[in-house]
Amino acid sequence: MAANPGLNVDWHPAELPAGTGVHLQTVVTVDGNAAKGTLYTPAGGAPQDTTAVVLMHPRVDFSRHYLIPALVGAGHAVYVQQARDAGNDLRLVHEQALLDLGAGLEWLHGIGFRRTVGLGNSGGAGLLTYYVQQSLRAPEQRIARTPAGRPSQLDRAVLPALDALAYLAPHPGQGALLAACIDPSVTDEDDPFSVDPALDPFAPENGYRPAPESSSYAPAFVARYRAAQRQRVARIDETARAHVAEALAARRAVKAGGTAADRRRAGSARLITVWRTDADLRAMDQDLDKSDRGYGSVYGRPEITNVGIVGFGRLTTPDAWLSTWSALSSHATIAKAGPEMVLPTLVITYTADNCVFPGDVDGIVGALGTSGVRVEGLAADHYGRPVAGGARDAAAAVLDPWLREL
Fold first, then answer.
1. Using CA atoms, how far apart are residues 235 and 291, in angstroms rounded to an integer?
2. Which of 33, 196, 205, 235 is the most exposed place for a label (fewest CB within 10 A)?
3. Do you find a cis peptide bond into 17, omega within 30 degrees of 0?
4. Tens digit of pLDDT for each residue in 49-84?
5. Which domain CATH number covers 70?
6. Predicted TM-score (pTM) above 0.85
7. Cβ atoms of residues 189 and 233 within 8 Å
């Protein structure tokens, strides 16, 4: 298989085991979305006798995930649910993604699969943990509104329960991830180059050293930096909520008669640009949360990528910011949803991961409500590429026996 820089791999269909069934499915969610899914089945495997491994990521299309051929080859079915806004951070609302997954699982159960096991890879970890939390609650006890105040419709949805959940290179949720890598030295949200020198992670006086040398940030600076990151998130939250309130006021005005200006405001959506979101100190200082990783982030060298156009949550609607990217407002973090995640659990970590760090994994394991979490480490980067070379699908050899023991 030829690897690419993302979580997927463009394997050729011929690389699937002989006789693999591939079925494309579209189901309609409770809110009217056409949710697309892909089911891979092993040759001769009847649904009632086969475990279906369920993959979903809120931002990435996992339909060609790098573990699919190996899992199918081991005799497991793999179902991949695509989120309605995969590849589009602009409108990513996690509550809607749960509706997509629920509809896909309802179809999967309907065709005979009796056992479904989630595989939460990277950002899929927070999504699936949130799903488990909501699926195990009675409908009337589910989260009724998105963080922006819109009806979630989770109380109306069928959310079939998973039987177990495996985590693969899991991070603690999109909002928690962004809170760790957002640059708190931004002083003006409208100026991508505004900098508070006292918080600048790329200032030599604060401990920065040019690559490939590792930076060295003092504990006091790290503490100030982390606190300032949360403060910046809180400020963006305030902006997002102000935009939501403005739109709500316009819609109410339209219902009362309103003006042409009210109608324009009611039909428009403010966008939030979040500058500089690739500045996790651990990417530059390899002694912080020490692991086998190399220098840099998943995007490259932060001194360059931090000011680029690519990054987590760079452009969003207020709804998407509050539901997905705010560590303070989002419900889709393992810290918040994890205590109700009581299913049998396996955690597979990659020891050279430069997106998920040992402290993140400890926090994830500590937040889960299940007992006896099994943790396995593999020497690979965030995308499963082995440090010493070789096959990218080593995690399948860990997953297979665990699935059979359930």
1. 32
2. 205
3. no
4. 999 999 999 999 999 999 999 999 999 999 999 999
5. 3.40.50.1820
6. yes
7. no
